[in-house]
Design brief:
Length: 416
Amino acid sequence: MLIMLNACFIKPFHILSFHWANLSPLETSARAVLTADPQGSDVWLQETVRLNCKVEDSDPFTRWEYSWKKLREAEEPTPYSYTGEGSAVYILNQVVESDSAQYWCEAKAENRTIISTPYTLTVTSPPPAVLTLEPAWRTFYPSEKVTLKCDIQSQQTEWRYQWYKDGESRNSASSRSTNEFTIPALDLSHRGRYYCRGGIPGRAVSTEKSNYVTLTVDALPTVVLALQTSWTNFFNGERVTLHCDIQGGSPVWVYNWYRGEKELPVDTNKDTYEILSADQSDSGTYTCKGQHKERELYTGSSNTIKVKVSAPPPAVLTLEPAWRTFYPSEKVTLKCDIQSQQTEWIYQWYRDGESRDSAPSRSTNGFTIPALDLSHRGRYYCRGGIPGRAVSTEKSNYVTLTVDAPPPAVLTLEPA
């Protein structure tokens, strides 16, 4: 025979004590045994509790009648009586806090009454589940590791955990048995709103949903390396400036600089790498990347820029025509030849150490004297420079321009 009861909600109570002997006037070798499923006195809201009463050590032919009593604080015991044979079960479906009480059963046969030991039932709300992220970054990046931790404040140790992302289950056998859900290498597909809840194996009980935690996974910023100048071939002594732009990055990033595979020992807080006076040892392929200030996290490498630093080419000065001696009124051109693919050279001309520059002479590698006189004698050299750049060739070779007066003409008669 089965009894199924529900009760209204009240706050938990303190257990009352009373004299069970008064309810059992007759001594007997038979005893009433009360058992509960689930075992233990603490159950959660909405669970079903089965109370079973059975008389043991009794004559098998004795027909027992069972009745149930429920006692709450400041209330008279409430009887629930019925007749049954063999055993009696009392079921409380979907318990609420008002079902918290002391329960016992009485078994009667002829002139004997047996009372069970009381069972105290305490109904409480399931504890809340609290979801956190470890580490608690606001933003994560691909390849990073994150652990979602579902914390249930309860002495119950047999919890099983359920995990949800955007309302869909993300459970697995391993994730159910621990309160930690680890993603070892994040990617963009892991973005979403997560929550968890706890349950107890074999019992129809579950916590409410935990708080929601939004897992934000952003793509690593793109890194762009740029050269401040439009040229990549430099000469000794020039300034080289490279700029590293972590696009969309925030102040949490610092800068690592590389020439080839070697990291350069520079200030990582600066987004600019500057060589004040370059030489050939600064030639190479440059890249940069971002490093997170707080985490073992790096962006991808930037694009590469190949920088070449060389000595300025020599300047070679020649005379056209290449006479050893010139005379007044003759024309001569000094030609400054610089062996370089650079086409924007400007030219500087010197005689006996003094500049002989003029606007026309700077723009061409030929310095022409259309009509020589004795004042043009001297030692000449040239050098080349590049407009807008602090670069200059070394002095060219020296060329001596010799201008002599023409010899006198002597008229003779033959025969004299």
